[in-house]
Amino acid sequence: MSNLISVGVIKAIFNPKSSKKPEKPVLQVAKIAHNEYSSLRPQRLKVALNDGCELVQGIIPVNSVGASRNINRGQLLRLTHYNCLIKPSLETKETLKIIIVINYELVDNQLYPIFHSLSPPQVRNIRRTPLHTRSLQQSNAFESNYTIDEEFFPISTLSPYYNTWKIEALVGTKSDVRYWKKFDGTGKWFSVVLYDSSGEIRATAFEQQVDEFYDQLQVGKLYEISKAKVGSSNKKYSSIIKNEYELFLGRETIIREVLDKDTSNFMAFNFVKISDLFEYEKDEIIDIIGLVIEVSNFQEITIKSTRRNVNKRSITMIDQSQYQVTLALWSSNAEKFDKSLLNHVIACKNVRVGDFQGRNLTLLNDSLVIRDPKIKETKALLDWYNINGSNLKFTKFTMQYNDDIKTLEQVKYEKLGQDDKVDFFLIMATITFIKKGTISYPACPTCFKKVNQIDNEWQCVKCSQSYKEPEHRYILSAILTDFTGNSILTFFNDTADKIMEIDVNELLRLRDEDEDRYHSYFENATCKSYFIKCRAKTDTYITENENTYEERSSVRYNAMDVSPVDYVIRAKKLYQIISDFEEEMFYS
């Protein structure tokens, strides 16, 4: 393995007497520090890099390299573009060496044992400290052995530790001029989101700089920017921007437009396949590319809580994974993007993942949409669709819960629904039996309450209405089984309709006309597994036995929502759980 790894190269990388960094060193990933402070994916991947003689901390901006989410312990990385920092440790008097990986290549797909040379390795433990907790008060003590070789700094490497820098950035979005008013005065500000091939950052201007830069900075144009202050990002206003820092445009800031330069490949995307959206938690921010197959009409929706009217439009996208997803556009975005997008490819940066109807996406104020971008993914998507896509059926998302799944034994052991309380929980179980006796009740078509037959009419007490025929609604009793036991659940109309796959009124007609088909629907509904969101509540009732009465209680379980198990997604989820457990055991 020593012939693959650049043994001892870390010492050369951090040699203060050297004027040139080693080119394309090969280092091994010895450890991956997972983000313990956020439920979202980290902005930067923190790793320990090994050259066989010593370990050094490495930082890989997730938004700059799409493959960073697939890095595994033991892999070999060839660093094609990197920078290095030396800063005082916040824990000891020693200095802390950091390699910022801007771009890299995987040497191969093998996972190697952690390599050590014959000489004793100088290994120092890497502290799992989130980047946002760095003390900016210590920035004056920072000292770097290197300046950037390139004329421009990558955006992903900007930090308060660098005082002299210049970036070349594309303006992706720009806000309106906004005004604030406090007890001590008023003011104004605006912001833009800047992009380059390594990442993104928000830049904000206040007061006089609003007048100076607002008209100069135009969306879609390229600029050289220098002498702006780098400070901690205010996540209240830039929560979706994948950068812990923000630029503040001041009096000394220099901005110059760059003309006659191709910007088609200037922006870095980390595209997610539509089929992989279940791997992302609700409210995570992602990039996605797809072909628009449907654009809804413009809608005006009233928000009940504020009675304010907002505009909405929905766009349906597909990709090569043969899944489709809906992108929701609100307010001005609903007006800006119309049906002219139909049959065009759109690349979306920084859209939010939602869990409505399984998975959906929302375009935010700082999200970016590019129509028919001149990138390789656009051509690949169009070529695929022209050959295959028009003849394919695309899968819609259904609910796939990532909550804690309880076993049926846990439900009973934890006494859910007892002690005069209502509990909600999630199970994954298989329907093993459905009772065929009473499967429905006659209901009012308006309020769905039970109606009573009087003479030749069906009367609803609540609505004071009479009907010639009732509308039947499901009320099924079924036995659910998992590997720990079984339980009886009640399925009402909306959930029962999903498992029976036939309207109850049609099923009742088959019971009278075609008994074999009637029983076949029950057979088809059994031996299928579902995610089921349940409600547990204790019911109290009176029993009579030989002129004596006794009050009894039992827990009733009702199905609130049902979704079939997607075994591919479930397998990926279990694999991730096992991998996390193995890593936790390894480092414990």
From TrEMBL:
The keyword Oxidoreductase does not apply. It comes from Gigaspora margarita. As part of the replication protein A (RPA/RP-A), a single-stranded DNA-binding heterotrimeric complex, may play an essential role in DNA replication, recombination and repair. Binds and stabilizes single-stranded DNA intermediates, preventing complementary DNA reannealing and recruiting different proteins involved in DNA metabolism. InterPro entries: Euk_RPA1_DBD_C, NA-bd_OB-fold, NA-bd_OB_tRNA, Rep_factor-A_C, REPA_OB_2, Rfa1. CDD domains: RPA1_DBD_A, RPA1_DBD_B, RPA1_DBD_C. Residues 274-369 form the Replication protein A OB domain. PANTHER family: OS03G0429900 PROTEIN. Its main location: nucleus. This is Replication protein A subunit.
